[in-house]
Amino acid sequence: MLKTTPKVGLPQLRVRASVASSPQKQYSPKTAEVKSGEEVHIAVLGANGYTGAEIVRLLANHPQFRIKVMTADRKAGEQFGSVFPHLITQDLPNLVAIKDADFSNVDAVFCCLPHGTTQEIIKGLRKQLKIVDLSADFRLRDINEYAEWYGHSHRAPELQQEAVYGLTEVLQGEIRNARLVANPGCYPTSIQLPLVPLIKAKLIKLSNIIIDAKSGVSGAGRGAKEANLYTEIAEGIHAYGIKGHRHVPEIEQGLSEVAESKVTISFTPNLICMKRGMQSTMFVEMAPGVTVSDLYQHLKSTYEGEEFVKLLHGSSVPHTRHVVGSNYCFMNVFEDRIPGRAIIISAIDNLVKGASGQAVQNLNLMMGLPENTGLQYQPLFP
Q1: Could you read off the pLDDT tens digit of each residue along the chain, which spans 382 residues?
Q2: Which residues form the active site (predicted)?
Q3: In degrees rounded to 5, what are phi and psi of residue 180?
């Protein structure tokens, strides 16, 4: 279980939000589909973390999203380029504390804040704003389950009822009509994209689903942690969260909903000494009479029209190095040496498709734009 994260500037935020929505302000947020060439004004909360910086990098190539507000309490008053020199060429506002943020000229918000801090902050924002939350605060629909896994009660249960889970390729229709989207976690994205269609089609059994997943160190966030020091993680692989990683209920929630029955998984995450990237290997038992070819063909037909989910050909194995820096998810299906079982492997960049890229993809849909807008970055290789 995670420890409860202290609240950050919440009373001041509510005051500022009420001022921002006062009658003196004439700006009206865009709540309908935006027109071609029309600017959408963006706020990035928690811009000094990895996912916040990745949002900024991706939006540098977006033709319509323009960043107007950036918050970072510990870096308030600094220029963004001084915190992230690789983005010094971007014309961006200075970082401010959340309590000083002015949302009066904003259409949409990316919340890149630590788990446990987002709920009350979002409650203080104007109801017209479109919000994509990259924390875990709104992913679990059952607030009692949230309290069990995150160690404190949910502080915005009324917003939880409104939140739409943002697994883009699976829930496009719901996302288009949403005001608040809970962006999925990186592990759940890499796992649900292959498994959801197969479970929905009843091609695999609901029992004995075993998942071995590996992530780059950026998945642990930018905060200083002893366990993530170079000398602690170099030249090794580190299993963690073995008995109960916080992404387990999120994964089981998605699989159980399409199965219309409780699905329980065996899941072990591992930390790899690399900056970014994620590979999930899933071991499944096929339904009677189903072959590996059936699994492959169903995934192929499911994602044939999707730009960012690609089923590889033949015996090609998805590798993290082939998706780095991109919003793609590569996957493939293999026959296990144990009769009746199959092995599915998927690879994503944990900071892009596993976080900020999917968040931009979701906001594109929410604003009535093509979901690939500003996201056609090709993978970096080598």
Answers
A1: 333 333 333 333 332 332 233 333 345 677 668 888 899 999 999 999 999 999 999 999 999 999 999 999 888 989 999 999 999 999 999 999 999 999 999 999 999 999 888 999 999 999 999 999 999 999 999 999 999 999 899 999 999 999 999 999 999 999 999 999 999 999 999 999 999 999 999 999 999 999 999 999 888 777 767 777 878 888 889 999 998 889 999 999 999 999 999 999 999 999 999 999 999 999 999 999 999 999 999 999 999 999 999 999 999 999 999 999 999 999 999 999 999 999 999 999 999 999 999 999 999 999 999 999 999 999 999 8
A2: 186
A3: -125, 120
CB within 8 Å of 321: residues ≥ 6 apart = 277, 381, 382
Q: Is 61 within 8 Å of 377 (Cβ atoms)?
A: yes
Catalytic residues: 186
Residue 307 CA, chain-centre distance (Å), reads 17
CA 100 to CA 81: how far, in whole Å? 20
Residue 90, SS3 per DSSP: coil
What is the CB-side half-sphere exposure of residue 94 using CA atoms within 13 A? 9
∠ CA 277-195-189, nearest 5°, is 35
pTM as predicted: 0.90
CATH homologous superfamily of 10-162: NAD(P)-binding Rossmann-like Domain (3.40.50.720)
Measured distance CA(273)–CA(267) in Å, rounded? 20
Q: Is 117 exposed, middle or buried (0-12, 13-18, 19+ CB in 10 A)?
A: buried
How do the residues of the chain divide into helix, strand and coil, expressed in percent and rounded to 5? 35, 20, 45
**Topology of the domain covering 187-350:** Dihydrodipicolinate Reductase; domain 2 (3.30.360)
> What residues does each domain of the chain span?
10-162, 187-350
Is 121 in contact with 111 (CB distance < 8 Å)? yes
Strand 341-348 relative to strand 329-335, pairing = antiparallel
